[in-house]
Amino acid sequence: MYNPYSSTRRSFLKGSLAVTGGMLAGRLAPAAQTAPAANRPNFLFVLLDQLSHDALSAYGNPYVSTPNMDRLINRGYSFMQSYSTNPICSPARSSLFTGRMPVETGVISNNRPIHRSCVNMGQWFSDNGYETVYSGKWHLPLGQPTAIEGFTVLPHGSGQGDLTDAEVSRNCEAYLKNRSGDNPFLLVTSILQPHDICFWPVKVKGLNPEKLPLSYLEDQLPQLPDNHTSRPKSCELMNGRIYRGWSEDQWRYYSYIYYRQVEMADADIGRVIDALEDSGHAENTIVILTADHGESLGRHMNVGKWHSYDESVKVPFVVSWPGRIAEKKTDTSHLVSGVDVMSTLCDYAGISEPPHSRGRSLKPLLEGNNTDWREFVVSEHHIIGRMVRSNDFKYVKYHGDDVEQLFDMKADPGETVNLYDNSKYEDIVKDHRRMLDEWNAHLLPVKPTDCIGGIEPYLKKFVKDTPFEV
């Protein structure tokens, strides 16, 4: 039986950590170390898959209980306007681990490796004196690899989240309780749940939820926007998951299962947080929790991700360091992005960022300092789609599609009324086009990396006349 506290386990950790895999042949040289190791914090980076921003009890969701993530929220700083760089697993993860946009990492769809011109977080931090350890889903390109350049990988088998997440959290628990050494650590705990919900749409039609107490999920029914016909055709075709034939109880059942999967993830996160506190490292460890993308959960008649509505592209982003960062703080005014993770960790570690990082360090905001902030954030999706989120509006454009989208996010947070062809908003549309043009102009796109399996035939079927190679 697996015992995370055994001497064999400790020997494995010590042996494996001696070989970090941080060789940098064929790419940029590492940054110069600028802060003494003793003065630098540790990092615990908790990454979830398909966790919606509002699927947490601390944020007021009555259908789910997330006491462990709530712990981080209650003793940390929550960014309430946090956006993924892409509502698809691999592209979003490539940004989180490089600070670059997906079109720059070459990961424009699932199952692609990060382009060799980009350095990943493990490479950068291991070359700057950090002990870098990874456990859980990677998906760049493989879901559960046994080796990641720059990281020591704690193997955890393969399978869906309900089978692997417990092993991931116990790996991290064992590491935290048994580690030794003077160097600071960067530990990535990558939880797969609630991504297992992706497998439910193909099964739920044949399931009978009548015996479950689902009536309390009174508002968990599909929601169709007022002018739903005014949506880009590209978005409709490529989503392909509009289940208007489901009964109300089947829709509720879908939500019921999703929230249970969120609770499974929360339990595994709790195990890792407890281990951090028991290890004696908590006082000098910054915890960051976020997700690669969200889950539609029936909103806009969708399930899954794959589009630019907030339920899919807006994600939690919590930073906790008790005594150093404000507690129970909710920031509703600053737009943040997945590319900010790399910049923030580098700032706190006292090392320079990798070249061409697109993120901004959140450290000034976390420490309550006044600073000029960005005007907007951008998300890529479906290879040809782009979203611009400004303080008040969201603009969406698909290459070659006549229909654009503009939503007033203050007056219409549910994104139900498309304003792009309303003459009253003509100048606002033009301004957001300007933002997008300026953003695109400073990016350094690369040829997409090779896809290992995946959905390439599906993408090619719908993506025509695109400036981006598929």
Automatic annotation (TrEMBL):
This is Choline-sulfatase. Keywords: Hydrolase, Metal-binding, Signal. It comes from Limihaloglobus sulfuriphilus. InterPro entries: Alkaline_phosphatase_core_sf, Sulfatase_CS, Sulfatase_N, TAT_signal. One of its GO terms (molecular function) is choline-sulfatase activity. Residues 1-31 form the signal peptide. Belongs to the sulfatase family. Pfam families: Sulfatase (PF00884).
